[in-house]
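Milestone M4 deliverable, item 7.
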Amino acid sequence: QVQLVESGGGLVQAGGSLRLSCAASGRTFSRATMGWFRQAPGKEREFVSAITWNGGNTYYADSVKGRFTISRDNSEMTVFLQMSSLKPEDTAVYYCASTGSYFSESYYRNHLHYDSWGQGTQVTVSS
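Output delivered:
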């Protein structure tokens, strides 16, 4: 079981950049696939990105490909989401999550497959 604490959210104008961080604790972090999800008011939680335990595989929602980059630093037990060319539709609460199960890309895109979650950090992109 991994514990996650997120930071880095804020207000940014359209076209700007923001980097989210998720600090983890627990022995399972290095073996966990990490994911980022987001949820806007009144909407379902949406997959954003994921990265496997060794960083060898990354996955992105079509809506963020080319704009967002996920990375991790296992020595620091931290996962990042670098967001660039932000759009107003990116506005949401962003959550970091982890799963210790390993199956397939489609598995990692489903929020129900994640075991631990951060508290969420608000990202607001103004027009």
